[in-house]
Design a protein that fits this description.
Helix 4 runs antiparallel to helix 5, helix 6 crosses helix 7 and helix 7 crosses helix 8. This protein has twelve helices and 13 strands. The chain is 42% helix and 20% strand. The chain has 311 residues and is of the alpha+beta class. The radius of gyration is 20 Å and the shape is globular. The strands form three sheets. Strands 2, 3, 5, 8, 10, 11 and 12 form a seven-stranded antiparallel beta sheet that branches. A three-stranded mixed beta sheet has the order 4-1-13, with helices on one face. A three-stranded antiparallel beta sheet has the order 7-6-9, with no helix packed on it.
Length: 311
């Protein structure tokens, strides 16, 4: 008997601006193929999607759920899933990715909105006919982010807050009409480690801490982590820190020394070494190119934290 083919797992990192951690992916490029991919993926932030045309299947942990035009999807970070259209069609989507904790930090720090609930929505597919307000809010958010009129960030933030509150209400409601919901459970064995890094990257901790959180031996944890992320836990942590450093370089006037300390490096030399290894240039050169790009000169945006592996 032949061995069952393993699925490819992809980690998709979306680099969100530290001042306005929201990203819109929209337009004709975002048609979903009708060919079922052998790849499952997960990402580093909350995804809200809207299907504009046709329909298809969304799979979570091997369990298929149908979607159709007008449906809204809500997918938390670190949740494996894949999407494909019905045969002979190519459904069109728009996606909004954002970090609710950073975007609504004034509310979450005061505990006005439960942080864990914002980051741990269940995967839900919401029917527009039974959830017209949510459908309206998502479309309004997309319009604000697409056209970028005056004060669009303030408007989009307000609309996103209203959307999150509405989804939390739906999540806590006993009336599930028009909703397909999947369990909140994380399907990645390394999810506790990824979450810990997300919240504690600025602190010093050992890989043993991450292994303990996942209830794995150190050797097994390293092997599983590498099989999913395509890199070691320490390399991932350092690249995560560099990603945060890039956000700070882009949005603040802090010195490189200050930024290196803010993102968790013990010394500026360690920071410089890791920055160069990750971005193929020094932090000062990266900042200079960024300033040039803002002056209208060509700048090739460098993407980091994009891994794929086998599990």
């Amino acid at each position: 008997m032949s061995k069952q083919k393993k699925s490819i797992i992809e980690y998709r990192n979306y680099d969100l601006d530290i001042k306005f951690p929201v990203l819109l992916l929209a337009g004709d490029r975002w048609h979903i193929s009708d060919i079922k991919s052998g790849r499952l993926h997960f990402h580093n932030c909350l995804e809200i999607g809207i299907c504009h045309s046709d329909g298809g299947i969304m799979e979570l942990n091997g369990k298929p759920t149908n979607f159709k035009a007008g449906d809204i999807t809500c997918i938390p970070r670190n949740l494996l899933h894949t999407t494909y259209s019905h045969q002979g069609t190519a459904s069109l989507w728009s996606y909004v990715f954002f970090d609710p904790e950073e975007l609504f930090h004034d509310y979450t720090r005061n505990q006005e909105i439960p942080v864990s609930a914002l980051q741990n929505f269940p995967l839900m597919i919401l029917n527009k006919d039974d959830n017209p307000r949510i459908f309206f809010l998502v479309n309004s958010i997309i319009e604000e982010l697409k056209h970028k009129k005056s004060n669009y960030q303030t408007s989009a933030k307000s609309l996103l807050l209203a959307l999150c509150i509405d989804i939390l209400r739906v999540q806590g409601s006993n009336d599930l009409k028009g909703i397909s919901a999947a369990p909140i459970e994380n399907v990645l064995v390394i999810s506790p480690a990824l979450d810990y890094i997300h919240y504690n990257y600025m602190h010093h901790f050992s890989v043993d801490v991450l292994a303990d959180l996942c209830h794995l031996s150190m050797t097994h944890f390293r092997r599983v982590f590498h099989s999913i992320m395509g890199t070691s836990p320490l390399e991932y942590l350092n690249k995560f820190r560099i990603n945060k450093a890039c956000s700070l370089l882009r949005s603040t006037e802090h010195t490189i020394l200050s930024i290196s300390e803010q993102v968790g490096f013990c010394s500026v030399s360690s920071f410089n070494r890791n920055f160069t290894n990750t971005m193929s240039m020094s932090a000062s050169s990266w900042k200079k190119q960024l300033l040039q790009s803002e002056s209208g000169k060509e700048w090739k945006n460098q993407s980091i934290l994009e891994y794929d592996g086998w599990v």
